[in-house]
């Protein structure tokens, strides 16, 4: 069913590395949704091991375990954003890292969540994810992949099944009046598999919806020069008009060593979603702990450090949790009325 997950505790090492420790689960603990008590357990849904959500969730667990009294947090590998919101809905996770498009659709019962809205709110706004349509320079030379629509008829990986990457790609296709069922030879690979398939010439391109400078893309370009397929001006306008939680974005030249020119594309924000039945006190405790120890999170993704500030709560796609509203207002941050529950 795509819901098998692995649970870990995490210890941050210096720089970008993390050390994984198996989380002890032998003692019973209450759900992290209540007000508190002894050893309340917080389950954090992250993503695949190849993505940034996984170490970010591990860093969150480490920060919580070190700084939040009476809480035991653990991070779990999952299929990504879509599955994470379903885990929130099913009561299996207490926090979920997810893309804003997924959270918006879950909250409103749209798209993948049609008819089954998820009672969720935002606890944190993290950093923007950038849509990378990735090919190799050798495939571009042969095929002429100058705009996103040029992938029509090509072999294209849309992302792992149930991932936010797949949902984002499906929304881009929809906005451009394209069909992943008909207009491409679709594959549904996770990042590492997509990179392997590109190297082995099994696909022509694939999508990564990740922070800039993602490790798997740097590893790929260590052996093969990349070509990032631009989202041309008319394409970007069509997507942002239909789905306003997307923004136009430019990947600056030399962000990747083999891509020297600026590349036009799209971006959307990542958030930490929590269930609406998480108490205000628990939400306040978690928000305060994570924002006041953001340096521990920024070690995992240094490029996101400038974004991990309270003022960016205004970027949330859904209402904020009362706990983070309380904390933000204590710090003098104004919260728009549209983001109050």
From TrEMBL:
Signal keyword on record: yes
PROSITE patterns for this protein: PROKAR_LIPOPROTEIN
Keyword tags: Signal
Domain of life: Bacteria
SUPFAM superfamilies: Periplasmic binding protein-like II
Name assigned to this protein: TAXI family TRAP transporter solute-binding subunit
Organism: Streptomyces sanyensis
Signal sequence annotation: 1-23
């Amino acid at each position: 069913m795509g819901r098998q997950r692995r649970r870990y505790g995490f210890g941050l090492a210096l720089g970008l590395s993390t050390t994984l420790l198996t989380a002890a689960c032998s003692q019973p603990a209450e759900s992290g949704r209540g007000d508190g008590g002894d050893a309340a357990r917080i389950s954090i849904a992250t993503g695949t091991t190849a993505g940034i959500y996984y170490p970010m969730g591990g860093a969150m667990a480490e920060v919580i375990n070190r700084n939040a009294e009476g809480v035991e947090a653990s991070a779990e590998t999952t299929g990504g954003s879509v599955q994470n919101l379903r885990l929130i809905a099913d009561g299996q996770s207490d926090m979920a890292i997810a893309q804003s498009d997924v959270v918006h659709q879950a909250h409103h019962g749209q798209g993948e969540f049609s008819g089954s809205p998820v009672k969720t709110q935002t606890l944190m706004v993290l950093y923007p994810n950038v849509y990378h349509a990735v090919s190799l320079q050798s495939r571009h030379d042969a095929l002429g992949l100058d705009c996103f629509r040029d992938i029509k008829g090509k072999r294209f990986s849309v992302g792992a099944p149930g991932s936010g990457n797949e949902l984002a790609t499906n929304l881009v296709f929809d906005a451009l009046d394209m069909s992943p069922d008909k207009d491409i030879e679709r594959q549904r690979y996770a990042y590492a598999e997509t990179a392997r398939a590109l190297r082995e010439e099994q696909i022509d391109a694939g999508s990564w919806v990740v922070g800039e400078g993602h490790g798997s893309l740097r590893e790929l370009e260590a052996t093969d020069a990349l070509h990032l397929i631009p989202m041309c001006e008319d394409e970007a306008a069509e997507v942002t008009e239909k789905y306003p939680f997307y923004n136009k974005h430019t990947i600056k030249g030399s962000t990747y060593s083999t891509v020297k020119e600026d590349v036009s594309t799209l971006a959307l924000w990542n958030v930490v979603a929590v269930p609406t039945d998480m108490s205000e006190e628990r939400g306040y405790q978690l928000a305060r702990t994570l924002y006041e120890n953001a340096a521990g999170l920024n070690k995992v993704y240094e490029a996101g450090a400038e974004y991990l500030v309270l003022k960016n709560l205004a970027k949330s796609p859904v209402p904020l949790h009362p706990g983070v509203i309380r904390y933000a207002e204590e710090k003098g941050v104004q919260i728009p009325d549209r983001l109050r529950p």
